[in-house]
Write a structure and sequence with these properties.
This protein has 452 residues and is α/β, with parallel strands linked by helices. It has 3 domains: 7-58, no CATH class; 63-195, Leucine Dehydrogenase, chain A, domain 1 (Rossmann fold); 212-376, NAD(P)-binding Rossmann-like Domain (Rossmann fold, 3-Layer(aba) Sandwich), CATH 3.40.50.720. It is built from 17 helices and 12 strands. It has helices at 7-21, 26-43, 47-51, 54-58, 107-123, 144-158, 177-191, 211-229, 246-257, 280-293, 298-304, 333-341, 357-365, 373-376, 378-393, 399-421, 430-449; strands at residues 63-72, 78-89, 95-101, 130-135, 167-170, 238-242, 261-267, 270-273, 307-310, 321-324, 346-348, 369-371. It has a 7-stranded mixed β-sheet with strand order 9-8-7-6-10-11-12, sandwiched between helices. A 5-stranded mixed β-sheet has the order 1-2-4-3-5. Strand 11 (346-348), helix 13 and strand 12 (369-371) form a beta-alpha-beta unit. The longest helix has 23 residues, at 399-421. The protein is globular and about 60 Å long. The two termini are 16 Å apart. It binds glutamic acid (GLU).
Length: 452
């Protein structure tokens, strides 16, 4: 039962309890607050959800596994990292969610990501639960062999907790095609099974077409839907993108294909501003730079004679559309205010939780179109779900078939946001719509199972 006589009291009491039970986990508090602020008003008069204590149950992960990962670097030093898998909720399908290798990975970050993943996966309409994993391993500057040894050591522990009907990990920051291949090879060796236990696999061993493109394309497709619903298009719009990894690259690719002009990309060292716009040929340079040479974005500035802004984020550049595609909390209140002041019309989040709560509040007050990550970047995990389907059927769909399915899934997510987020004044609160739309299916499955 929620405690309190008003929505605000219930929200305050709920957040106090959550913070007490999960001290110092700021990212987790932030992600839960963002959802609870939509869900508590929604369930205020719905006693079935209240009596079953659904929200409290949904903010306690099913289990968290942490483990030591011991590996040897190229100099023969023994290195130790901490590995995790947060299995958050399997109410509507096997646990599903990426693995992140980054030096700032912590229990709080993985709990926020696994929590978000549960609602995101529900929004796709596919049968997938929510999970996330990773390690505080920094792949930057490591040789291929070091990465291989790390992945093998990581999987040696993880393999006993996952399986095609139990938990199906995938990539995230720091885990791309190379890492998934090493992880899959080690799983196959240990389990002596060739199954769809990971997604984002290479095409030669059970991977799906469109998986690499899916998150970025999806973030643009849903922007297209959101603009269309408000009688606008992407064509001719000036676009600011942050990041230069997988999500950013394919966001830029689809945005320019649809006639947008993308003027920025970034990495942790700064951003480039190309006022003429990044075209497909310049994007190919970025893909080569980031996927093959693993170099820095400043090389783009030297190659194409544009300005590089060291240690800065791109939000000061005036734009019509913004796609944060780097990482969590990359847009603070000041950045959000700058975007609004410069006339930004719409924001689609390619990264997970890139906007701080104060920034979200500003976007919502100014009534710009803001679609949160759990809806906007769900295309990636959606095509992971389609990879699982293809693995189960032991066949592969064509690029066209998969792209059409992705397109339709993004449109359905958009429509779900409108269904649950339409306000009395006719505007759409996409955040509320995504949260409620993702919540209902999971909550109803939990109700059906009784007390477990
Ligand atoms: N890491 C991605 C996400 O944040 C993809 C997860 C997956 O494909 O399972 O949704």
């Amino acid at each position: 039962m929620m405690i309190g006589n008003t929505v605000q009291e219930q929200l305050d009491n709920f957040m106090d309890g959550l913070k007490r039970r999960n001290p110092h986990e700021h990212e987790f508090h932030q992600a839960v607050y963002e959802v609870a602020a939509s869900i508590i008003p929604f369930i205020f008069h719905k006693s079935v959800y209240q009596q079953a204590n659904i929200l409290e149950r949904l903010t306690e992960p099913d289990r968290i596994i942490t483990f030591r990962v011991c590996w040897e670097d190229d100099e023969g030093n023994i290195r130790v990292n901490r590995g995790y898998r947060v299995q958050h909720c399997n109410a509507i399908g096997p646990y599903k969610g990426g693995i992140r290798f980054h030096y700032d990975v912590s229990r709080s970050i993985l709990k926020f990501l696994a929590f978000e993943q549960t609602f995101k996966n529900s929004l796709t309409g596919l049968p997938m639960g929510g999970a996330k994993g990773g390690a505080d391993f920094n792949p930057k500057g490591k040789s291929d062999r070091e990465v291989m040894r790390f992945c093998q050591a990581f999987m040696t522990e993880l393999y006993r907790h996952i399986g095609p009907f139990t938990d199906v990990p995938a990539g995230d920051i720091g885990v791309g095609a190379r890492e998934i291949s090493y992880l899959f090879g080690q799983y196959k060796r240990l389990a002596n099974e060739f199954t769809g236990v990971l997604t984002g696999k290479g095409l030669a061993f059970g991977g799906s077409l469109i998986r690499s493109e899916a998150t970025g394309y999806g973030a643009v497709y849903i922007m297209q839907d959101m603009l269309k619903y408000h009688q606008q298009t992407i064509e001719g719009k000036t676009i600011v993108v942050s990041g230069s990894g997988n999500v950013a690259q394919y966001t830029v690719e689809k945005a320019i294909e649809l006639g947008g002009k993308v003027v920025t990309m970034s990495d942790s060292s700064g951003f480039i501003y190309d006022p003429d716009g990044i075209d497909q040929q310049k994007l190919d340079f970025i893909k080569q730079l980031k996927q093959v040479r693993r170099g820095r974005i400043s090389e783009y500035a030297s190659e194409f004679k544009v300005k590089f802004y060291e240690k800065q984020k791109p939000w000061s550049i005036a734009c019509d559309l913004a796609f944060p595609c780097a990482t969590q909390n990359e847009i603070n209140a000041e950045d959000a205010a700058t975007l609004v002041k410069n006339g930004c019309l719409a924001v689609s989040e390619g990264a997970n939780m890139p906007t701080e709560q104060a920034g979200i509040n500003l976007f919502q007050q100014s009534k710009i179109l803001y679609i949160p990550s759990k809806a906007a970047n769900a295309g990636g995990v959606a095509v992971s779900g389609l990879e699982m389907t293809q693995n189960s059927m032991r066949l592969s769909w064509s690029r066209e078939e998969l792209d059409q399915r992705l397109r339709k899934i993004m449109q359905d997510i958009h429509d779900k946001c409108v269904e649950y987020g339409k306000q009395e004044d006719g505007t759409v609160n996409y955040l509320k719509g995504a949260n409620i739309g993702g919540f209902i299916k999971v909550a109803d499955a939990m109700l059906a199972y009784g007390v477990i």
